[in-house]
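#lab-general

N.A. 3:47 PM
ok so I finally got the sequence cleaned up, no stray characters, all 202 residues accounted for. can someone with queue access submit it? mine expired

B.Y. 3:52 PM
send it over

N.A. 3:53 PM
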Amino acid sequence: SHFLFFITKRWYHTFPLSKRSDCEGDVWDHRLYPTADKGIYTRIDALRLAADGTINPGVWNKLYKSALWKDIRFPEGHVYENVDTTYRVVNLCSTVCVIDEPLYMYRKRQGAITEVVSAKNVNDWLMARSHFEDFIKENIPDAFSDEHLRRFYRSRLNQMISFYVSLSKQDGDEEKTLSGELRKRFIELRSAIGLEKCSRST
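B.Y. 4:20 PM
back already:
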């Protein structure tokens, strides 16, 4: 079957700008974040872009045919469930169309899942990315060259570093333990990405 999977190229990413006494909440400004270039992509090309983060895994900036979700469900009890799901939907598409109009307003707020870095959230993200990697190796290994895999690992490493910085500032035992595990994973990813050195804080 031929399905069209539409993805907005840009979306409004809002953030708290200031507080005013005459407003109930924050005053919001907006920014535009680019993703993939406008155009039509094949299933494999779209999966590659999803792997390296060029296509955002969020489900909120996409239009789908309902038939795509017939046998796909979000994992229960996990955050970052979109990271563990979007690539499965992309894999069912023969065509992915990216448009360049900002059609969705996305508001960041304090306390939102994506704004909370905890051991639970990070572990769920790591699991989701691991599932994506397993999916690639088991289903489409020939579609990902060494360079495609390096981009995939680089995208993972960038996010892991961001998580590490946040976790290292926390005092919880789980967060401290996970920080140590992330440091080990940095070293493991070093050769996969092609880095000769991996700096370590003392």
